[in-house]
Amino acid sequence: MVEQPFQTRLAEGMIRVYLSHDSVVGFAHQYPRGLMPPLIEGDTPAQTGKTFEPASAPRFRDLRSRMESGWVSELQQIVGLDRRSLPAIWDADFLLGPKLSSGADTYVLCEINASSTFAFPEYAMPTVAQAALERIRDLRPPKERTP
User: Fold this and answer.
1) Which H or E run includes 28?
2) Alpha helices in the chain (DSSP H)
3) Hey, which end of the chain has fewer CB within 10 Å, N or C?
4) How far apart are CA 20 and CA 127, in angstroms?
5) Which residues have C-beta within 8 Å of that of residue 99, sequence separation ≥ 6?
6) Per-residue pLDDT tens over the stretch 45-86
């Protein structure tokens, strides 16, 4: 467990990046109530809900690029996993960090989920299904040849 400073943009939600192996297959913008400070009488309740977006969502272009061209491969090197050893579906949650002077978002890793990753975006289903089928094929013993 790593101690992190409080993120002042927490009320703006969290971005979940869904991956299949090392490829981003979708996003969700959600508002995790469990991370929010308790409401004080008179406070306006925080937003709730989850909005799925495809991997091609322009809003998350930079985050996708960082995931696929750097962060995932760094994670693989640190933990010693090749591409095929990564889960068929997994996700990484990011809190919104301080905005850059350009107005662009920054992201702070919150957690990585490698099991019980459901629900995930419908856009991801074909890729996840294909990854699962490939994994099953990889695990099958080769057919014995008959003379």
Assistant:
1) strand 23-30
2) 61-66, 72-79, 125-139
3) C
4) 7
5) 105, 106
6) 566 678 999 999 999 999 999 999 999 999 999 999 998 888
| Identity of the residue numbered 115 | S
Q: How many helices (H) and strands (E) does the chain have?
A: 3, 5
Burial class for 88, CB neighbours closer than 10 Å (0-12, 13-18, 19+) = buried
> Against a cut of 0.85, is the pTM above it?
no
Distance of CA 53 to the CA centre of its chain: 12
What CA–CA distances, in Å, run from 98 to 10, 35, 71, 108? 11, 18, 19, 9
Look up residue 54 and give its amino acid: P
Amino acid at 143: K
